[in-house]
């Protein structure tokens, strides 16, 4: 196996770009919740019905927010 | 003075069936009447032997002969705990939706050996001050798992998804300050790009920033440059009287292959001879058989140390020992300066 081939084997393969890191820590107006039944993403504003727009399921999961946390690598 | 012989019983640590004997050396002043055992640099130099036995890209085996166990042990301990390396110390997790908890993932990142020459970095002086380009190396890890299109019926996650496995090769160095020119063509990166850090499933992502810093194994094992450094004493086998022909095969088989050979003596009779005692594991198997009683003596040479060192990858194995000796010499200088102060009549 050539050197360059070996180098890229362990690198990221996903062609889809990742969303940039948020520059502010302000909470967004629309939060994307995940349906507990079908897994669809649901953009829900505050005051809106808590209900999946795809299947009507009433349990939604809140994904982890994009916020920095410091850890010691120990 | 004639060169010292391995057959000198004063140099032997006895390997007996139930115990080891003659463990401590007696070559200190006043022990043997009429013999001068005061420390003498010229004599030490004559007796000191350092010889390389085996060198591979990752391991080193060398002999150190003519020093006290305290010196050999100091060298071993400095190699393990005081030769510095660079490892990930702080991790800033932006997001991690994988199954692995942040603290577990960060602990794993800390253990990844990094190919950064520690001699080109300084220790971080003030933990409260900001990071400098001379004491910190930054890596970014940004991975997201997605479903690959057109893979219906596929069961292998590696073909079904993109980036379902997160490897150390995905850590990307972010040059800061003068680092880009300083480390041109020797970019900091993990020693092994193929260490699996975590697994992902579609929709999960890991996004974090790592700060790598210089440290020593005394602080945390992740900084240790060796895996590991150890020594053993050279085995020395003495055949006291000839082994009878009918027992020779059994005698040979009581040792690992290559230790004992059968050779014809002057009269053409086959005799057991010690071929290579270095290969002996000192299992003491030969001492279990009554027919070999008093015919063989197992010993080790007390001041012949066989060092085995495996580098983790930050240093070349041949660079590790000189680095350890430098650190040891600095310690000696520190003690020397302290003693000078202690006995200085001016103070
Ligand atoms: Zn749903």
Automatic annotation (TrEMBL), chain A:
Biased composition (Polar residues): 1-16
Location of the region described as Disordered in the Swiss-Prot/TrEMBL record: 1-25
Entry-linked Gene3D superfamilies: RNA polymerase ii, chain L (2.20.28.30)
One biological process term in Gene Ontology: DNA-templated transcription
GO MF terms held by the record: DNA binding; DNA-directed RNA polymerase activity; zinc ion binding
Record flagged with keyword Metal-binding: yes
GO cellular component, one term: RNA polymerase III complex
Subcellular location: Nucleus
Highest taxon, organism lineage: Eukaryota
Keyword Zinc attributed: yes
Keyword terms: DNA-directed RNA polymerase, Metal-binding, Nucleus, Transcription, Zinc
PANTHER family documented for this protein: DNA-DIRECTED RNA POLYMERASES I, II, AND III, GEO11084P1
Family designation: Belongs to the archaeal Rpo12/eukaryotic RPC10 RNA polymerase subunit family.
Protein name: DNA-directed RNA polymerase I, II, and III subunit RPABC4
Protein species of origin: Tremella mesenterica
Lineage: Eukaryota, Fungi, Dikarya, Basidiomycota, Agaricomycotina
TrEMBL record, chain B:
One protein family per Pfam: RNA_pol_L
Biological process terms in GO annotation: DNA-templated transcription
InterPro entries xrefs: DNA-dir_RNA_pol_insert, DNA-dir_RNA_pol_RpoA/D/Rpb3, RBP11-like, RNAP_Rpo3/Rpb3/RPAC1, RNAPI/III_AC40, RNApol_insert_sf, Rpo3/RPB3_RNA_Pol_subunit
Signal peptide: none
Domain DNA-directed RNA polymerase RpoA/D/Rpb3-type: from-to ranges: 59-338
Gene Ontology CC: nuclear DNA-directed RNA polymerase complex; RNA polymerase I complex; RNA polymerase III complex
Keywords from the UniProt entry: DNA-directed RNA polymerase, Nucleus, Transcription
Gene Ontology terms, MF aspect: DNA-directed RNA polymerase activity; protein dimerization activity
Localization, UniProt: Nucleus
CDD domains: RNAP_I_II_AC40
Family note: Belongs to the archaeal Rpo3/eukaryotic RPB3 RNA polymerase subunit family.
Protein name: DNA-directed RNA polymerases I and III subunit RPAC1
Organism of derivation: Tremella mesenterica (Jelly fungus)
Lineage: Eukaryota, Fungi, Dikarya, Basidiomycota, Agaricomycotina
